[in-house]
Amino acid sequence: MTPPPTDPAAWRPRFxxxxxxxxxxxxxHDASHLDRVWRSAEALLAHHPEADALVVMAASxxxxxxxxxxxxxxxxxxxxxxxxxxxEQLARIGFPEDRLDAVAHAIEAHxxxxxxxxxxxxxxxxxxxxxxxxxxxxxxxxxxxxxxxxGRALAHPDDxxxxxxxPDDRAWTLDHIVIKLARLPEMMQTEAGRxxxxxxxxxxxxxxxEFAQEWLGS
Length: 218
Description:
With 218 residues, the chain is mostly helical. 57% of the residues lie in helices and 0% in strands. The longest helix is centred in the last third of the chain and has 26 residues.
């Protein structure tokens, strides 16, 4: 019996097809998001030749197979459910069995809300790549897209920068930058991911300041 191919390029269309079969209407977690996560992961793989690129690609494309809304009470379980579903679907299409555990762990550990430590270099790369998509210009667009779907206001009417109040991103979307996104660079698992995250965060902080100036008419 011929063993399954291990070249990631041969598997990419199959991973994308599996992801598409489970996709829901969510512009922040669509096929373009998966492509971006893989491209960022590829950039990080260049710094870590010891990592298994096939595992990273599979997890990059399948990490959102179960995509629950941000305010769903079971949100923290989404990555575990995605990992279980990915394991089942990959086995069905002949993915190398000896890599299934690694893919499942990378998927489980990618989630911010799940708080599962990434213990392999592949999981660290996938986690960094997914979080990079929450930063920069695209991260900004995704932030407002998600908040709009949840009915949250753009910013506090009088104090958009939370200078005299506690930030609250459940009420004011702009607060999400300081509550969560500004923390991401220090949480990155790879040095290259941290450098990219800091660069993208800088763009968000410039936007936040300019937004407040226009918001307050100053």
